[in-house]
From TrEMBL:
<keyword id="KW-0863">Zinc-finger</keyword>
<dbReference type="InterPro" id="IPR017907">
    <property type="entry name" value="Znf_RING_CS"/>
</dbReference>
<keyword id="KW-0862">Zinc</keyword>
<keyword id="KW-0479">Metal-binding</keyword>
<dbReference type="GO" id="GO:0008270">
    <property type="term" value="F:zinc ion binding"/>
</dbReference>
<feature type="transmembrane region" description="Helical">
    <location>
        <begin position="217"/>
        <end position="240"/>
    </location>
</feature>
<dbReference type="InterPro" id="IPR027370">
    <property type="entry name" value="Znf-RING_euk"/>
</dbReference>
<protein>
    <submittedName>
        <fullName>RING-type domain-containing protein</fullName>
    </submittedName>
</protein>
<dbReference type="InterPro" id="IPR013083">
    <property type="entry name" value="Znf_RING/FYVE/PHD"/>
</dbReference>
<keyword id="KW-0472">Membrane</keyword>
<dbReference type="Pfam" id="PF13445">
    <property type="entry name" value="zf-RING_UBOX"/>
</dbReference>
<feature type="coiled-coil region">
    <location>
        <begin position="21"/>
        <end position="59"/>
    </location>
</feature>
<feature type="domain" description="RING-type">
    <location>
        <begin position="121"/>
        <end position="165"/>
    </location>
</feature>
<keyword id="KW-1133">Transmembrane helix</keyword>
<keyword id="KW-0812">Transmembrane</keyword>
<dbReference type="InterPro" id="IPR001841">
    <property type="entry name" value="Znf_RING"/>
</dbReference>
<keyword id="KW-0175">Coiled coil</keyword>
Length: 241
């Protein structure tokens, strides 16, 4: 009987010891639940970051491809500009060479050509005239032919002299830019139509033509070529930006 009473006396003590264990168990279960929720949130954040990273990689890849294409297009454009510029420089050098040749042909040389050729075109063997298609036109090399024959020799905006094969560039202009050989006209009979001309502007134009020299024509051609080099180059570069 005494032992039973002793056991019954221990029950409250055991009960008091069990309560803290139960409380700790509940706290642990609550912490486990909280950690599970945190883990779920972490998994969702991980998925979001993974998707964001994939999207960024795709955008970067597209941007890199576009930049590569732009660089390739830029290289192609620059190469085209270089080729065009090189072509213009070649034209300028040709004009400068022609100018050098023209400077060596003095009026005395031209007069010698007149003496040999006489007052008639050496191609069609027809007399020169100071108006119309029989006007004597001086080529860059100093040889003189009539305007009609010059028109027949035009090819790709240039005239190849039939005597020395040198090219006279017209640069897109007509035969009016070719100077007249006034030395030949001095020994030719004036055209009746020219004698009857009364228009003051025509007379002034004829007077202006008399002052056109090979040097001025070629100088204009050189400046004309330089202008197109600068304009084409600046326009092409501007399109790159």
């Amino acid at each position: 009987m005494s032992n039973e009473n002793e056991y019954l006396g221990l029950i409250p003590s055991i009960r008091n010891r069990a309560d803290p264990v139960e409380d700790e168990r509940k706290e642990l279960e609550s912490e486990i639940t909280r950690l599970k929720n945190w883990l779920k949130d972490a998994e969702r954040e991980k998925s979001r970051l993974r998707e964001l990273n994939r999207s960024n990689e795709e955008r970067f890849s597209r941007a890199l491809t576009a930049e590569t294409l732009r660089n390739q297009e830029t290289q192609v454009t620059l190469q085209r500009v270089y080729r065009t510029t090189a072509g213009y420089w070649q034209s300028v050098q040709d004009l400068q060479e022609q100018l050098k040749i023209a400077r060596t042909r003095t009026p005395v040389v031209i007069m010698e050509t007149v003496k040999v050729g006489g007052p008639e075109c050496q191609i069609c063997v027809r007399p020169y005239s100071d108006c119309g298609i029989r006007q004597p036109k001086v080529l860059i090399c100093g040889h003189t032919i009539c305007e009609e024959c010059a028109a027949r020799l035009v090819h790709d905006t240039k005239i190849k002299c039939p005597f020395d094969r040198l090219d006279t560039h017209l640069n897109g202009h007509g035969l009016d830019v070719l100077p007249k050989n006034f030395a030949i006209l001095e020994v030719c009979k004036p055209c009746p139509m020219a004698e009857k001309a009364t228009d003051t502007d025509d007379l002034e134009s004829e007077s202006d033509d008399s002052h056109m020299t090979l040097h001025s024509i070629l100088t204009f051609s050189v400046f004309f070529a330089f202008f197109f080099i600068c304009y084409d180059f600046l326009f092409t570069i501007a399109t790159l930006f």
